[in-house]
Amino acid sequence: MRPSPARLLNILVPVKRAVDYAVKIRVNPQKTGIDTNVKHSMNPFDEIAVEEAVRLRERLKTEVKSIKVITIGPPKSLDTLRTALAMGADAAVHVQHGEEGSAGPEPLSVAKTFKAWMEKQKEGEKIDMVILGKQAIDDDLGVTGQMLAGLLGWSQATFASKIEVDVEKKQALVTREIDGGSEELRCSLPIVITTDLRLNEPRYASLPNIMKAKKKPVETITPADLGLDYTPQLELLKVEEPPKRVGGGKVGSVDELLEKLKEAGITAV
To answer: In this structure, are residues 173 and 186 in contact, taking their beta carbons and an 8 Å threshold?
Structure first.
């Protein structure tokens, strides 16, 4: 028997186009940020989120109605959406903003964007679960998921390493990583979940699925369409690389060590 419409899950997966994880990050010559004229790909934690959404549909089968992905960024962000579609997402939303190399919106603006788009969805298409990476590897802020849950007033489970969903009971059992171990949270739907590395290993998109992804629908909108203004609330003054480490040296005795420390201006407390 097919589940009633009220018991079908609509999943949203926010993804971000970020500097590829294999690229060595460098500060740009203007010292206003990192050098973005390098290879980009989907943020690895978001890739895990897409994979988990697809796995949930494989486990729950007909209880998952749709998986949509959404991103904010310049035209090249469409490549990131196509990757997610090739992995198994059904449709995508591209919030066009900025030019290649320009700074993206702040986390609060990102969370407000997702909330505004979700509120515009028709009955039957309302989102029940948001799964996103715990952080982006370019800014490492790790706050967007928590902000989104706060704005929506939804349950939240961060740093998830295992997710189980009971659609009929409208509950999710999430195992999350904490210092020194793990804990289980039983949360009510709707829910925002952020993913950790050990949740899964993302699949490679097959060539047939890459071809199919080109035909899947992509909705293109702007922040203005959602009534949003991305004027930053924070001012970035300067970005610098950490000082280079200098080589150490060996000493022959404690007295020589103390003498070296004194020369360096370090005194015992």
So the answer is: yes
